[in-house]
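PROTOCOL LOG
Step 1. Enter all chains and additional molecules of the complex.
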Amino acid sequence: MIESTNFFVMAPASAEVSARFPDLHPPFEPTAAVTEAHRCLYCFDAPCMAACPTHIDVPKFIKKIVSGNLEGSAKTILDANILGASCSRACPVDVLCEGACVMHRYNKQPIEIGRLQRFAMDALHASGAALPFTPGEDAGKKVALIGGGPASLACAAELRRRGVTAEIFDARPLPGGLNTYGIAEYKLPLKESLREIDMLAQLGVRFHFNTLVDVKKLAEIEKKFDAVFLGIGLGAIHKLGIVGEELEGVTDALEFIAGYKSGSIMSVPAKVAVIGAGNTAIDAANAAVRLGASEVHMVYRRGPEQMSAFTFEYEHAKQEGVRFLWHVAPVALAGKSKIHALELAKLETASDGALLPRQGENFTLAVDLVVLAIGQSTHTEFLGDGSVAGAGKVKLERGRIVVDRVTGQTSQPKYFAGGDCTNGGREVVDAVADGKRAGIGIAAWLEGVR
Amino acid sequence: MPVSPTLETTFAGIKCLNPFWLASAPPTNCGEQIMRAFDAGWGGAVWKTIGEPITNVSSRYSSIDWNGQKMMGFNNIELISDRPTETNLREIAEVKRRYPKHVVIASLMVESKRETWHEMVQRAEDAGADGLELNFGCPHGMSERGMGSAVGQVPEYCEQITSWVKEKARTPVIVKLTPNISDIRLPARAAKRAGADAVSAINTINSITGIDLETLEPRPNVDGKSSHGGYCGPAVKPIALNMVQQVNSDHVDGSPLPMSGIGGIGSWQDAAEFILLGAGTVQVCTAVMHYGYRIVEDMGDGLLAWMRRKGYATIDDFRGLSLPNVREWKNLNLNFRVVAEIHADKCIGCQLCYTACWDGAHQCIHLDRADGGMDAPVAGTDPRYAHGEPNPHGKPTPAMVIAESAKVISTTPIAKLDLNGLGANSAVTPLERIPRVDEDECVGCNLCSLVCPVPQCITMERRETGLPFESWKERVAKGSAAEAVAVTGNPNL
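Step 2. Run joint prediction.
Step 3. Record the structure below.
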């Protein structure tokens, strides 16, 4: 168990990866930040604040940038969102705060809220100041948090601020979950995720790394702790279920992204195909371009109008030089020990909406690397499988844990949950919001209010 | 036939190519500057005040920035010209030789002795000045030596020195008035009694612009100390307009003198406003110190376009036209009523009007359109008087609105699926974000329309009261003044 943390200096660093993944949205210079902050109208009950899942008081932190009160600005952000720095970089602001900005209706660009938020957070980090919160008085209660991603981190912070002991159990060697291992490096560098967790850990959060929690372990934990928070995220990426998936050179997007972010993947071969067209698929395709591929194709069974990626992500991929193969599906992965081609079927949509292969129109695409990004499965199988009486037996729905959205409480009162394992896979900010609500919910439940 | 307006005008007998003069200040320090200013289009220049050369301090200026804009207000502790009188006069002669049609006014300030003033007037006029401006306004430094505003603040001194100057002067004499006085009309009357040909107003206002929060030293910093300075720039324009109006509406000693208006002027609109309140020319300093002489081009171009649109051929055609529209409060119509109207099609949903009305006005803007809030509630149905609760308005307070919003659970929309996310469809303002005015309770104060960032989104609309004009003065005369006495408790009303 680790109590005093210094994750930032433990970050695996690769100067080459850093150079290939510069900030997609570079930081503001101070004068530019103040000029931009002045544009904010200071709306009442601001739409940006409502659109933010963590309800950051955006006009308030922006006006503090104007007044030069950067410490107060960062505190305003952290008070609502303990991962305010990560979110300032990783959030799809176009469909959140900036999408809601009234400036759209003023025939002007929305306020650059994400970059202003990063400016305030960078200033706090640069100042070397401590986290502007202190742990609450010891409440004499202990909560275990399974998974060290944003949901658990946010939940732990709320618990610590209320004096509840918070111990995080994570299978990986570093905290942060997908916030650390899964976000495109040009949005959120791995080390920045760790820097923020270092700060949060000042509240006295305890960590158990390289600790896989199985059903037996969960039963142990349940006995020792007053409540359990499940922030276990989603499981592995789906398989295609076709011939050749075991070949060398076939990987999945999460492995691939985690690999290049943590320095185990430094380059890719010339020809890369990414299967899928969601936001993760785009992150993987863009990464392949930056890691040296000369030809990157995204392969999707439907058309651009159905792709699940945000429009701005699609535009970004096009700018990176990613090519798109629409209305096709892989039929086989060819190669002896190593993949060398992808056999693709052209698809047409039947009148009932089913996708049918067009006979005799299969073709092959030469590839050296195939990255699967066709959605994650759930991994809730260890919850309440009956092998250990009662442990973690919570109600599921299509593999997702069912929770009370206000408190995060599951069907089993001692268990709470949040993040991708409850919402099916959304953004960091959604996980933070879930974790925050659950932290408040757990503390209230432990006090016997609920 | 369309009017072809001209900016040429005559001020106190001085022919001017246009009404735009540079005020006596750093932009008129020397002949070289003034000639460049004339090339840029300025019609006249009041020379930096000539007198016994002084020693200035370093630094000298400070300013107030506002919401990202520089120099909303400007302050200086510089004194009059630090150049020898002979140099200034030689250059006046040179400028007038090269620019005979442009106006050069010599601003003068010397010790309060009749002979000294006589000598200076003679020398300035011999150099070729078209007129004289007596600097009775400088509020710092010179006033400690018995000059500048030390003269302007005492009508008797003002009258005395002006009369000495008039004994000698052959050109028009303009007395520059200080605003640092309780009633600016008193020195203006004094100048008139002494035979002055014109006045100019206002000089700068006593000010301290600010304190450095690290060193605790005021600005501008002179070896850790500062002194009160003279405030000017856009921030002082409303103060200047009021004083210009006061002087130009003052008929106590007959018609007012011609007035050269000064104070925060930087655009053609500013110039037009001063002229509408009676100024014959306008003087500019801070805007030129900020942006250079080139600003005069649009002052002329814009003013001419406005004159053409309004049908005014000359400056005199519209000079003073707004003076009758400034009245004492007691003569305003108590039976005139306007109410705010929010044009929903223009509203962007910032709700600044809502918070302004609740915290700064009369709590009559509500966020209830989506709940079927009435656009025009039936008179007398407003719930606020129906009960004695702490919130007597019958509507959620701002704090209640915020508390409700905090409870909303929002999530990142999934592309293509969640079309109604809070971040989506931002081209249209949601109905619940468009505030509603409770017309019955609206007092017509204008505040919402002033804070609204969108032009013409909140307009003030006239509502007929069915009552004839009635001023407070008339109400007093009718004997219903008891109301006013009771309210003010002042039996002298």
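Step 4. Note key features.
Residues 7-127 of chain A form a domain with the Fumarate Reductase Iron-sulfur Protein; Chain B, domain 2 fold (CATH 1.10.1060.10).
Residues 341 and 366 of chain A are 4 Å apart (CA to CA).
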